[in-house]
Write the structure tokens for this entry.
Amino acid sequence: MRILVVEDEQALQDQLKDALNQQGFAVDQATDGEEGLFFAREYPIDLAIVDLGLPKLNGLDLIKKVREQDLTFPILILTARDRWQDKVEGLSLGADDYLAKPFQMEELLARTNALLRRSAGLANPVVKKGPIELDTMSQGVTVNGEVLELTAYEYKVLEYLMMNSDKVISKTELTEHIYEQDHDKDSNVLEVFVRRLRKKLDPEGTLQPIDTLRGRGYRISPNL
């Protein structure tokens, strides 16, 4: 999943990036509202974390412009604790949740995961497809109750496919949602991740959990 962080305080921006990266998210960073709007328009963002006190274009105006362009990804706003009016206005303009500064990073991560699940139509942090269970909070994966050891990118691929199991995901879309902006995006490497995932999820070759649709992409098998 790809997260946009729009925050002008460098120390906090770095803390957010580190915490989100550790949770397996790809992170794009912007230090002002205009740059944040550019990222929102040009990149396939899954969720944005937006500070309201931004230079050039404040957070409220950024949220308004994002929603005016029919960009529907969830937005979590960061705001000073004593500015309740900003919270109300941010939510009315289209933000989905807010967090008052200072905050605990664990709470931000929990809210981020909850918003991503909600946007995917999932109420439970554990996503189930047949015998496969993926816990979006602990990032654990089991098949028939047995724990799998996945690399960070194998997990990212599986999580995106399972949270979008109702559609076919092209290689381009999958690549753009698991890598950060400046990462070398090699589709051949993606094929390696998918091949390794198949072996780990289905070592006997009986489950066939990931379909390849020639010329279209991948999907979690509807037969699970």
The two ends are 23 Å apart (CA to CA). Residues 132 and 146 are 9 Å apart (CA to CA). The chain has two domains: 2-119, 126-220. Residues 2-119 form a domain with the Rossmann fold fold (CATH 3.40.50.2300).
